[in-house]
């Protein structure tokens, strides 16, 4: 089945700099979560959650001056049999169930949409083909809300593909029933001038599993906020990310895994490559282990490969642990330049320099690309990496 949806107005320095710190500051936002935009002050860039973001490039999403325009974004859902696709109003009980907005833009997006798209997979349904959601920017500004819901013991793969040009603020909710398995691949392949700010909320049921693969290439500014919490014990979450930040681009990924139930697991691994003057990547990884979350097993990792001078990376992993009764918790962060030893090794085997550099970068990303599990998407992303590298080699 396929459904197309229009989101109408009022709706839907040279070298590298790396920062790595252990802190609980980023876990505590300057204002508590709320669905009301009035509960969040207009940011000025000095707040912890905004200090890396160039506010002047948000096109008014942060201060309420961005006005939605008709037909600025279209959403088309292509789903196999066994999937229900609905367009619902704000009063639908599933909207906002997975999480509450944690900053002003997320609250603005929640307050501004009129219709939301809900994709549901019935309990015990195991899909053999992916659900594909194409989000196409047609210019202008839009606010949107998307819900993906899996019933108990259902299994599904969802690909959300963002292309075109738009200024988009959105919230995406993932509701994963008990024993269900959901894999989501979110691709940000925007045109050069696009701005995309989104909060992704996952509520993982008892003994359920959630895998998120976030891929970011395009856009002038992309700021994504994946968040996970658990609805019962035994849940597992894997958060993978791949980004390629080019000249002048700002790409920011801010993760929070809230271990609020016992005997749950999480693993986060993000990798990025940067090239060009003023390319700026930000990765914030927060893990909160609450008092009741005994038996938690968690790890988070961020790796960055700087290909040219002029690029900047800020990488901040955080762990906040409120109980000593855990299975394990750790984090790692590293940023480095291109490995000349690897390049020399390949060239000594007769491989030309340009091809050797491509092989090294492909190898850097290979582990995460393989997590996708969809050959057509994997090939597309590898081709995109090759295209990006051509600007440097």
UniProtKB/TrEMBL annotation:
Annotated InterPro entries: Fe-S_cluster_assembly_SufBD (IPR055346), SUF_FeS_clus_asmbl_SufBD_core (IPR000825), SUF_FeS_clus_asmbl_SufBD_sf (IPR037284), SUF_FeS_clus_asmbl_SufD (IPR011542)
Domain of life the protein comes from: Bacteria
GO biological process, alphabetically ordered: iron-sulfur cluster assembly
Pfam families: SUFBD_core
Domain SUF system FeS cluster assembly SufBD core: 138-364
Family classification: Belongs to the iron-sulfur cluster assembly SufBD family.
Identification of the protein by name: Fe-S cluster assembly protein SufD
């Amino acid at each position: 089945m396929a459904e197309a949806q229009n989101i109408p107005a009022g709706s839907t320095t040279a070298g590298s700099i790396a920062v790595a710190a252990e802190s609980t500051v980023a876990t505590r936002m300057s204002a508590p979560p709320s669905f009301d935009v009035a509960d969040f002050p207009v940011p000025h860039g000095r707040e912890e959650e905004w200090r890396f973001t160039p506010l002047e490039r948000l096109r008014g999403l942060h201060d309420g001056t961005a006005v939605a325009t008709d037909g600025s974004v279209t959403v088309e859902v292509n789903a196999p049999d066994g999937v229900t696709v609905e367009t619902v109003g704000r009063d639908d009980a599933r909207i906002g169930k997975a999480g509450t907005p944690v900053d002003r833009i997320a609250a603005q997006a929640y307050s501004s949409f009129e219709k939301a798209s809900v994709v549901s997979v019935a309990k015990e349904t195991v899909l053999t083909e992916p659900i594909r959601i194409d989000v196409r920017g047609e210019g202008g500004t839009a606010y949107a809300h998307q819900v993906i819901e899996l019933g108990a013991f259902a299994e599904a793969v969802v690909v959300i593909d963002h292309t075109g040009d738009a200024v988009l603020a959105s919230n995406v909710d993932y509701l994963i029933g008990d024993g269900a398995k959901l894999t989501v691949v979110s691709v940000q392949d925007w045109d050069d001038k696009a701005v995309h700010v989104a909060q992704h909320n996952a509520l993982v049921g008892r003994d359920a599993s959630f895998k998120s693969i976030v891929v970011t290439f395009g856009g002038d500014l992309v700021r994504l906020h994946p968040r996970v919490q658990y609805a019962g014990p035994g849940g597992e979450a894997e958060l993978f990310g791949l980004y390629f930040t080019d000249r002048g681009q700002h790409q920011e990924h801010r993760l929070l895994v809230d271990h609020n139930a016992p005997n749950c697991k999480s693993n986060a691994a993000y990798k990025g490559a940067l090239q060009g003057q003023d390319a700026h990547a930000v990765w914030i990884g927060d893990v909160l282990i609450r008092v009741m979350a005994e038996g938690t097993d968690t790890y988070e990792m961020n790796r960055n490969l700087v290909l040219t001078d002029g690029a900047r990376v800020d990488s901040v992993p955080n762990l906040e642990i409120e109980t000593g009764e855990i299975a394990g918790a750790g984090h790692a962060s590293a940023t480095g330049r291109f490995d000349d030893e690897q390049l020399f090794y390949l060239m000594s085997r007769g491989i030309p320099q340009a091809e050797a550099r491509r092989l090294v970068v492909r190898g850097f990303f290979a582990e995460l690309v393989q997590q996708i599990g969809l050959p057509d998407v994997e090939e597309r992303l590898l081709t995109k990496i090759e295209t990006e590298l051509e600007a440097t080699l």
